[in-house]
């Protein structure tokens, strides 16, 4: 029996991209899907687009929330699947066979993960995510950054907890680490899982994101290792910016 996959999409006022996200789920060749949409009471026409496909959406909630992680927690509260997967509005599953390729022969694994491709506002491919997924993944893998993005990991519903809404930007890192700590069988699919839209909260609010990430890393890995790991992360970020400036000089 194939596992049921709860796909959760949270959205607020994203009329330009929401339909592409929806269609990437509806077009999957894998049929054991529970699709959950949490809309934050959009006012730009987003909800009207979602309503066009209401017969293909198992759970649709449209109401004001207290932020993205509060909305994600609403999705989790309604998820009945064997696995949960968060697909942000503007992102999409890599192709129509993505879920089939991951779960066709699934048994009782705890986590499946893979790669992510980045696209721009016009759906043009920018390239692969800078952090490529490690060959082997565990909870310690995130000490030097988010090596697997939120949109390219499937986790057993029984292993996840609510997002800590104390964090406003980086709660997804904390959430994944907590789940990995409880996971035993973690599978590298060696597959691209998603195409995700460049940008996002952590880019727009970079300074706050750094502070939250440091707090999360310190909680899970200790102060001294986190200080040294952040020196490495900062040096890597500086090198990346210098390379960008050099190439565009």
Structural Rg: 18 Å
Number of helical stretches of at least 4 residues: 8
Q: Percent of residues in helical segments?
A: 25-40%
Helix/sheet category: alpha/beta
What is the averaged pLDDT score?
Answer: 91
Instruction: Give the H and E element order.
Output: EHEHEHEEHEEEHEHHH
CA-based shape? globular
Note the quaternary state here.
Answer: single chain
Distance between the termini: 56 Å
Strand content: 15-25%
- Report low-confidence residues grouped into runs of 5 or more: none
Secondary structure tally: strands: 9
Question: Quick one: biggest sheet?
Answer: 9 strands, mixed
Topology of helices and strands:
Elements: E1 5-11, H1 18-26, E2 33-39, H2 46-51, E3 59-62, H3 68-78, E4 83-86, E5 92-93, H4 98-103, E6 111-119, E7 125-128, E8 153-156, H5 171-181, E9 186-197, H6 201-204, H7 206-221, H8 223-247
Parallel strand pairs: 1-2, 1-4, 2-3, 6-9
Antiparallel strand pairs: 4-8, 5-9, 6-7, 6-8
Helix pairs in contact: 5-7, 7-8
Would you kindly provide a written description of the structure presented here, covering whatever features stand out?
- The protein is an alpha/beta fold and 249 residues long.
- It is built from eight helices and nine strands.
- Helix 5 runs parallel beside helix 7 (206-221).
